Amino acid sequence: MVSIAKATENAIKFARDALGPVRTAAVRLEEVASTEVNGKDTWVITLSMINPDDPLNSPIGAALGRGRREYKSFTVLKDSGEVTSMKIRELADA
């Protein structure tokens, strides 16, 4: 079984490969959940990163890891560590 640390590492690598270095600046682990998807045991890893398209985020703030963040959830198979999906994660209003 792939550990949470390895699943997170795979999700971050997938995000960087798919989205590029600008969109994945200051990537941060937010949530981990264990679940079953299509009959397979998976980790759901939620990462956040600075949203470079948000007009309220300054280049300096983004470089320092500060600013409004966007959230994405990654489904990672527990048996192989393969990332099978990346989805926008909407936050509930507080």
Structural write-up:
The chain is α+β, with helices and mostly antiparallel strands and 94 residues long. The chain has one domain (4-88). Helices cover 27% and strands 38% of the residues. The protein has two helices and four strands. It has helices at 4-23, 59-63; strands at 28-37, 40-50, 69-77, 83-88. A four-stranded antiparallel β-sheet has the order 1-2-3-4, with helices on one face. The protein is elongated, with a radius of gyration of 14 Å. It starts with a helix and ends in a 6-residue tail after the last strand.
Shape: elongated
| Order of strands across the main sheet | 1-2-3-4
The secondary-structure element order is HEEHEE
Structural domains: how many: 1
- Number of DSSP helices? 2
Low-confidence stretches: none
| Share of helical residues | 25-40%
> Mean pLDDT, nearest integer?
86
Major sheet characteristics: 4 strands, antiparallel
Distance separating the two termini: 35 Å
What fraction of the residues are assigned to beta strands by DSSP? 35-45%
Classify the secondary structure makeup into a structural class. Answer: alpha+beta
How many strand segments? 4
- Please compute the radius of gyration using only Cα atoms: 14 Å
